[in-house]
Each structure stands twice: as structure tokens, then as C-alpha cells.
Amino acid sequence: MKSKAFFNDPTLIVDHMCKSLAAQNPTLRYDSANKVLYRPVGQDETKVSLISGGGSGHEPAHAGYVGEGMLDAAVCGKVFASPNFDQIISAFDRVATPRGILVIVKNYTGDKLNFGLAAETYQAQTGIPTHIVTIADDVSVPYSRGKLVGRRGLAGAVLVHKISGAAAASGLGLSEVAKVAQHVSDNMATIGCSLDYANLPGGADQPSIPENAIELGMGIHNEPGAQRISPQPSIEQLVSNMLKLLLNENDPEHGFLKFQGVPQNKSELVLMVNNLGGLSVLELQAIANVTLECLKAEYNITPIRIYVNTYLTALDAPGFNITIANLTPKIFDSDINLLSLLDEPVEIGSWATSQPLRNAAVAEAAPENKRARSPKLNKEIMCTFHLPMSFMSVRSLIFQNYIGDQRVFLKILENILAQVTTDEPKLTEYDTLMGDGDCGTTLLAGAKAAHAISEQGEETLASLSKGLMKVASAVRSGMGGTSGALYGIFLNSFVSGVQRNHEEFKEVNIQLFAKSATQALETLKGYTNARENSRTLMDALIPFVNELSKAVFTEKENASNALHKALKAAEDGAEATKWMKSTFGRSTYVGASEEGDDNPTKGIPDPGACGIVAIATAIQSVFQTQN
Fold first, then answer.
1. Is the predicted pLDDT of residue 589 greater than 60, yes or no?
2. Which of 199, 456, 592, 602 is deepest in the core (most CB within 10 A)?
3. Does 57 show up as a binding residue in the annotation?
4. Within 13 A of 30's CA, how many CA atoms are on the CB side?
């Protein structure tokens, strides 16, 4: 079925929503071009900035929590879709302070990758520290199913916004605010249910959940629940079942909420009952009371704080979430009082316990379509070496390991474009069988974008710092999608590492690049759970970086030999993907996750891993030496 709506344009409705919120709060500004609602900050602001966001359709989250004491900016994607890099970087520009930026995102792939790419890029460009906390509070996703991608983020994210927002407002530094946010995230759990699916503005007709059934554990984007219960149980039985999933520490699949030796009825627990959008106030309050009675009768628990309202929705889904957060001081290794932070007043109407607005000075609005700050390099490393004329050929420069010369940089970009152009047809063929068929063309678009930097002339690459940053930016913009975000995160972290590690090595050499690549790989691992044997590009990237580091630092090989060994490791990793089952990406939907002969993609290498091999082959070919 499909309900009637006043708006059928999902983009227009988001724009109107944000403009309304800005009109109601004179301290806020709205960047219409990038769908960013923000609280302007001064250049000398002394607090850590908080940014959150994601797909729209969850209001009041996240735009409804922008204001003094909570978020400094919210980035609003399309309905149920992650915002893109340019939107997110605009938010960074508008609210960044020297104290740093804490980014709070829910555990969805698009949000993690795009916000992660923006954070790594901004930190590399400006030197302003960033930190990401990922919210994963959904206990309906069992351990066995979520061991790779993790649990989904639900209404508990709002409690993290509130407590960490108060921590930032109190003057704590980035590491302390991040510690507060991470602790709250790690010590809360949420379970949801719904009578039916949400209706998307302008979307197609949705199937309905049968009349006498309920979806337990349904996500906030119409994802299926963990269990469909039919016939529909009484509200008392339903709530009792939901609390068991939240509070049973011994449940091997759902026992996420731990109490660390403090009895549950002696712990300081916060209860949130959240309306997913389609319940009346009457029904929501009644559900909250049933929850309180069940907590007391079955667990002898009386929450120290109770929040009942519409905090994070799934458009108009007729359902609710129950969240329990454990703020017991004994389990938080700090003198910071989490309950006091939760109780701090805020000037935000969407927070149920907010106080009336005080008079606030209206800040000057920044131009909507222009960044408030221009990115600047944290450190500039030049690519020019003053060598005798006898050493000035590209081949000689390579042989001498002077890999910082701009002509070597140029040769690498040329070879990558040539190799990817050659390999694109087979990458596309593999991805047509395993995914959505765009792996080859996407990688080629990135290679062309990177090479276009070199076409501006050798002087463009005279600065290694600027050249690498331009390449990272070009690849990010040219590729797009999930692979673009993965490459972008790795490259931006690599740039940061090169600038940071140059202090140690004092010159541009293979040691500098190997160490920076190792650090970039560790950064990338923080944004994806894909590892070796996942049948992804990580099956080639991880062995390439690890073997490069081993060859350079343990075996003391020169650039040519080290890269030769690293390439061989990447080739072996890609070859091994032929016989793996897929655990990530679109290939899992075409049967590539099946065991044995039932896997229709058996014998086909992962196109993403082959793409890494193509790039590694191109780089290694530049460093081949003659006898």
C-alpha cells in the first residue's frame, strides 16, 4: 500500500525541512547547496566541533539536534541515502575549530565511507584533527550475522549526540570527547519493532506486513526484522521479549549490553522509548509505561532517567525503539560525570528536556555556496632534486631511488593510466558476472582523473605534498561510489602519513612511502571490516602493503626489488579470490557467497583485487632497473 502525501519530491521536502529549522532558531544557518544545517563558529572557537548526519527521513535526527550543547552541524542526504563527500566537507569547513572535529555516524556502509573519506581528506588538507565514532546499538542483529559488517545504528545515536555535545561544550579536548562518545556507544543497546513499513515520499508502492503480524528488529530504512511474529502478541508480551534481547547478558547471539560486575538493578540505567514516526502520543506513552512496569516486575530495574518522545524516526513507520544506556560511573574509567552531561540544558527544541531559548547574538551567515575556509597543506615537501646532469634521465633517477622527482611522479601516473586502460575490459567482464559491472570503468575514470593532473605540466607535481593531494582529490571525485571512497580514504591517509613521516626520513624515498602506506592501510581498516579472504580489493591491497613494508624494513631491499615482491604478493592475493566466497558487496547477492560448486562465480577473480594488481603493476614497472 502507499499512503497519500503532500510532497512527492524527496529532494524538495528535505530542503523545506532544513529551511524551517533554520527559521525557528536564529543561531542557525543553512547551506542550501549542500543541505548542511549548522551553528556558525568563530575562527578562535575553543571547543571541539561535533558533526553528524546521514540520510534524511529520520527527523528530528540529525538536523533537529543542531544547536548549542549538541551538534554543530548536520549533513542531510537524500531520503534514506548517505550524503556525498562534497556535502560533508562543506560542513567541516563551516564549523571546524583548532580543537578538532568529532564525527558521529550510524553504522551504515555509505555513511561510514563518505564521512570517513571527508574526515581523512580534511585532516590531510588542514592539519585539524578529526575522529569518528560509529554507533552500532541494534541488538536484533545477532553476533553471527553481524560479525563482519557490525550492528546497525538506531535511536541510541541521539543519546551519544546529547552527552558528547555537553562534553564538548564543557571544554573537553577531542580525545576526551571521543572517549565519552565511544563509551556511551559501547554501553547502550536498542531494539525496535514495527507494525508496517515506512512510506517514502514519491516512492513506489510498498508491500505491507500482514495485518496480524509484527516485525521485531526492523531497521530504520525498511530493512527486514530479525523475526516476524504472527499472530501479533500483546504489548506486554512483546515488550517482555524485547527486554530479554536487551538485558540477557548470557544470550550468545544478542548479549551485547554488559554490566561489568555491577548488578543490573544497581546500575544507573537510562531508558529511551522512541517513536519511529507513525505512533500517536497516546500510544507511545502507554508503551513507555508498559516498559517501565516490565522492567520493575521482571528485573527490579528503575531507570534513573526516562526519555519518551520522537527522537529518531523511519519516516512514518508505525513502530518504536527501546534503548537502554548504562551510565554507571564504576564502568567508566574517568572523573567525567556522564549523567551530569546528559542533564546539561540545551537550546534545542527537538530534545525533550530542553530549556527555553535565551537571547543569542545572531552570527553572520557564511555564503551558502562557498567554503568558509580554504584547505591548506600541513607540510609541503618538494619534488625537485639538484643532481648532476648525468643523473637527470628518468631511468637513472629511478635507479638511484630518487622517487621524489616530479618526472618519476609523472611516469607513475602515465603507467597507471596505460595499465588500467588495458585491463579495463576484463575488470568490467568480471564485475558484470560478480557485481554491477562498473568496476573497470570506475577505476579507469579514477586513473584518467589522476593523470589529468600531470597534463597541467611537470611544475604541477613539483611539490610532492600538493601533487599527492591533487591526485587523491581527483581520484575521489573521478571514481565516486564505494570504491571511490575506499581509494579516497587510503590516499588521503597516505598523504597525511607522507607529511608526518617526512620528519623522520628527511628525504623522499621508498622507506617514507612504505611506512605511510602501512599507516594508510590501518586507517582504511577502521572504515571497513573487509580483510583477506573476503573476496574484495583488500585481498590484494593488504598483502601488497605488508610485503612492501617487510621487504623495505626487514629485508632492506631497494625500491625496485621491494616493489617486485609486493606486486607478487598482490597477484597471489588476487588469484586466491577465484575460489573464495564473497562476504561483502553486491557479489553476495548473485550467489558468490555460496560454498562449493553452488557458487556461480567460482574461478573468477575479484575485479577489485585485480584493479589493485593493475595499479601495483604500473608502479612496479616504473622501478624496474636495467642490468
1. no
2. 592
3. yes
4. 18
Amino acid, single-letter form, for residue 494:
F
> 540, 570 in Cβ contact below 8 A?
yes
H or E stretch covering 190:
strand 188-194
* Residue 3 placed within a domain: no
Cα end-to-end span (Å), the chain: 73
Kindly state whether residues 212 and 95 are assigned to the same domain.
no
Q: Identity (one letter) of the amino acid at 322?
A: I
pLDDT single digits (tens) 100-151 = 999 999 999 999 999 999 999 999 999 999 999 999 999 998 888 777 778 8
Instruction: Return d(Cα 5, Cα 550) in angstroms, integer.
Output: 60
Active site residues: 221
Which DSSP letter does residue 1 get? -
In whole angstroms, give the CA distance from residue 443 to residue 448.
9
Do residue 158 and residue 217 come from a single domain? no
Alpha carbon distance 317, 598 (integer Å): 38
Is 203 annotated in a binding site? The answer is no
- Give pLDDT tens digits for 16-55: 999 999 999 999 999 999 999 999 986 557 899 999 999 9
Do 169 and 247 belong together in one domain? no
Residues 68 and 148 in one domain: yes
58 is in an annotated binding site: yes
Number of domains in the chain: 3
In a domain, 359, yes or no: no
Question: What's the confidence (pLDDT) of residue 427?
Answer: 92
Residues 211 and 151 in one domain: no
Question: What residue numbers bound the domain in which 419 lies?
Answer: 389-622
